[in-house]
Design the sequence.
């Protein structure tokens, strides 16, 4: 039976082959996934999220369709969860080094692989029964059709018959009869296997004879045990005997192994391969569906499949946006924000008080972009998004300063690396960059960096404590416009009535307003201080 192309993530074999080349994937690294909190909320074990990103809108739509089916039909997720450990076991059997196992073990492993393969097919067939009419996407429809065709094929039926016969043969082997020739001094001269038996030997002890309802000596009653198998014997003696037995048993099974391996080659390898190729995809879509379910169950949060725009449109508009890691980690009401990139804002400078929500919204933007390019719904009430060619982050690294450069030198070096890596379709997330130096130096360097990114046309957020940077935005926009670049606008993390609201407003920052609100809250304004002493 010829194998059909089946994938839960790719609509065609060409698109899958294209994405198998790492160079064709968008530049969204494992480190970026870690900083955005995606590794934590996904919890993949057998693969990395960075393996699954795409810029291809048709691939994204295909995955959206797959996940819609998986989330709408609980039986599908239950079925995939059930076969995942079976396929993992098959993969582990495949990884065994043939040079380190005996022929008899190889024989048994082959039978086990067939049994696992049949179990997987039966689990799929059973799990898919009754849900086909509810499936709308191509991925599960194709997989269901293939499993049905496979399970009804002559060779699969024949395989089951051969498996049953061979398994029975193995299960019937309960003991072997060993013959030993002795020399004149009663020393072993030659030993060998006389027969393979379907009945276990009895110990020869009185209780065993009573249970057998017979006190006769027969061919299945042990007269005296071989000492290396007896309790208390050294491990070396036991291993020597076991090794001798294994060698003899391998000779008995050798012809069977040879014949069985041809069956494995003819029937199993080709078809278990298709299931093993699906293993990373099964884990990915299962974890994605579970994540979607957890976010949908979170009070006050929505997820939505974004409207997709071409990469060239450089679109990002989200309403009700939130940080998914925060949403799953806290029980407080979530603060939802709107974030839109347009003709007047290809880049944002985000300022505001410490712990005012700047980092949270910066990560929320990156998480939404990344989840879109994995084919998932995004954490928002509605969204319009274009794929990005990459996501690049520059987040605070604490006190791990480098000796040769110092922290400022390290920051500048990293920012230069990012600039050299991005293009006009990239997304940059710079959080509190240049915080290791004074306000004047930081503002100057930030102005130069922002101007360069604007001229390049790269979208993103520069989150900063530098309120003075806002004053430089008109000059930055003038220089960018002269070179055909994009515009920069400002966002402000708000304080309302002296409290951090975590709301993000598109407006010009006013550092004095933050200071005044905080001073009033703690009674440190001039009026409060002087009035309190009168």
Sequence:
């Amino acid at each position: 039976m010829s194998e059909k192309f089946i994938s839960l993530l790719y609509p065609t074999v060409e698109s899958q082959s294209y994405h198998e080349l790492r160079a064709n994937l968008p530049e969204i690294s494992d480190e970026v996934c870690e900083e955005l909190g995606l590794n934590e909320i996904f919890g993949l074990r057998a693969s990395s999220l960075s393996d699954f990103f795409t810029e291809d809108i048709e691939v994204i739509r295909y995955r959206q369709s797959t996940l819609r089916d998986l989330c709408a039909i609980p039986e599908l997720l239950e079925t995939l969860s059930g076969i995942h450990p079976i396929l993992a076991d098959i993969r582990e059997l495949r990884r065994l080094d043939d040079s380190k196992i005996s022929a008899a073990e190889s024989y048994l492993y082959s039978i086990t692989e067939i049994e696992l393969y049949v179990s997987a097919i039966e689990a799929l067939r059973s799990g898919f029964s009754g849900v086909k009419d509810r499936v709308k996407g191509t991925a599960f429809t194709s997989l269901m059709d293939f499993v049905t065709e496979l399970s009804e094929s002559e060779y699969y039926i024949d395989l089951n018959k051969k498996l049953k016969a061979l398994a029975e043969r193995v299960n019937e082997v309960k003991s072997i009869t060993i013959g030993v020739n002795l020399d004149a001094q009663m020393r072993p001269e030659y030993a060998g296997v006389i027969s393979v038996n379907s009945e276990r030997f009895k110990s020869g002890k009185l209780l065993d004879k009573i249970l057998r309802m017979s006190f006769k000596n027969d061919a299945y009653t042990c007269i005296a045990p071989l000492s290396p198998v007896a309790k208390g014997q050294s491990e070396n003696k036991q291993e020597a005997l076991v090794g001798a037995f294994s060698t003899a048993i391998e000779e008995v099974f050798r012809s069977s192994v040879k014949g069985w391996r041809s069956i494995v080659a003819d029937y199993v390898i080709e078809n278990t391969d298709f299931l093993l190729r699906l293993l990373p995809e099964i884990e990915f879509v299962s974890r994605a569906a579970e994540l979607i379910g957890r976010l949908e169950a979170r009070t006050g949060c929505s997820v939505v499949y974004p409207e997709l725009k071409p990469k060239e449109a450089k679109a990002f508009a989200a309403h009700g946006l939130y940080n998914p890691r925060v949403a799953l980690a806290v029980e407080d009401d979530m603060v939802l924000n709107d974030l839109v990139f347009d003709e007047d804002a290809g880049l944002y400078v985000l300022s505001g008080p410490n712990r005012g929500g700047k980092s949270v919204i910066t990560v929320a933007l990156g998480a939404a972009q990344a989840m879109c390019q994995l084919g998932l719904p995004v954490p928002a009430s509605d969204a319009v998004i274009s794929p990005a060619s990459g996501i690049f982050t520059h987040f605070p690294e604490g006190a791990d300063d480098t000796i040769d450069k110092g922290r400022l030198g390290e920051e500048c070096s990293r920012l230069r690396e990012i600039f050299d890596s991005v293009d006009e379709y990239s997304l940059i997330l710079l959080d509190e960059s240049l915080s290791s130096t004074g306000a004047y130096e930081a503002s100057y360097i930030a102005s130069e960096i922002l101007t360069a990114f604007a001229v390049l046309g790269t979208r993103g957020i520069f989150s900063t404590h530098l309120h003075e940077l806002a004053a430089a935005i008109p000059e930055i926009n003038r220089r960018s416009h002269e070179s055909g670049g994009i515009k920069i606008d400002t966002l402000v993390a708000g304080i309302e009535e002296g409290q951090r609201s975590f709301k993000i407003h598109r407006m010009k920052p006013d550092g004095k307003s933050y200071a005044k609100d905080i001073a009033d809250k703690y009674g440190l304004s001039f009026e409060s201080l002087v009035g309190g002493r009168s």
About this structure: Confidence is low (pLDDT under 50) at residues 398-405. The chain has two domains: 13-29+52-171+260-296, 302-531. The domain at 302-531 is CATH 3.40.50.300 (Rossmann fold). The radius of gyration is 34 Å.
